[in-house]
Amino acid sequence: MALGSEYVRYERRRGVGWLTLDRPQALNALTRDMYEALHRACVEGDADPDLQATVITGTGDVFSAGGDVKQGIEFLRAIERDDDSHPATLFGAGPGSYLPVDPIVAIQRARKLVIAAVNGLCQGGGFMTAMVADLTIASERATFRVPEALLGVVDPWVASRLPLYVGMERAKRIMFMCRPFSAQEALAWGFVSEVVAHEDLLTRVDALLDEILRTSPRAREAYKAAANRLLPDGSPDSPDYLGADAVFRSGDAREGMTAFAEKRAPSWVPEGR
After folding, report:
1. How far apart, in Å, are the Cα atoms of 159 and each of 49, 154, 243?
2. Closest CA to 128 of 33, 231, 257
3. What's the pTM value of the predicted model, to 2 decimals?
4. I need a labelling partner for 137 at 20 to 30 A (CA). Which of 43, 120, 190, 273 fits?
5. Which domains does the chain have, with CATH numbers?
6. Residue 262: beta bridge partners?
7. Contact 224, 111 (CB under 8 A)
8. What sign results for the dihedral spanned by CA atoms 210, 211, 214, 220?
9. Cβ distance 212 to 54 under 8 Å?
């Protein structure tokens, strides 16, 4: 399967697609092409009768540091140029869109199972990928974080989904404080289903697949669809996306992203001033 990104490797073994994020020089920060590759793996995987599941992992000690901030800054510039002929939107094919497709909802809606093998640093878009995967297995070296508020932006996927995994109080703490948490904490809180030695991660996922692939594909699909009805459907006009878009258009987003690029602390201006 050709996924269209030089930073995503794909191989197939025993009816399972293994997708590896491979941009180590940028901590596997997710570009538009990489997000689109995740989406394509789900869509084309569902259309392939011989594919049973997809595994997503990263290189070395990094799963993904999140979305590419440089492309986030480009989206802010698109917002400043926003007009009827070139609208700036979170998702869409136009030149003013942040992402061409919604990769996280694609994982959620995929009929076939998606397994995240989190091998290290996991935050931002990587965090969301791990969150909506059907099973998430973590290396003992993995750490997790939702850092968007430090940049003055809002992730459109996290707030309405994370409480279902870790509880409302803990989810708010994770989002408001932007502190990393460990693989063992993720296990205790229910965010991942298993933590293993770093060197055993992919071997353990292979063993789990041996068990999973003994089960009925139709049963797996029905169970996944029923469980995921508890999650938001990801409609483009949902409050999640409208709220994230509004924050992107605020002064906080411009200040937060600019401060990050300039390697300084942001200077937030209270609303109304």
Report:
1. 34, 9, 11
2. 231
3. 0.95
4. 43
5. 8-198+222-261 (3.90.226.10)
6. none
7. yes
8. negative
9. no
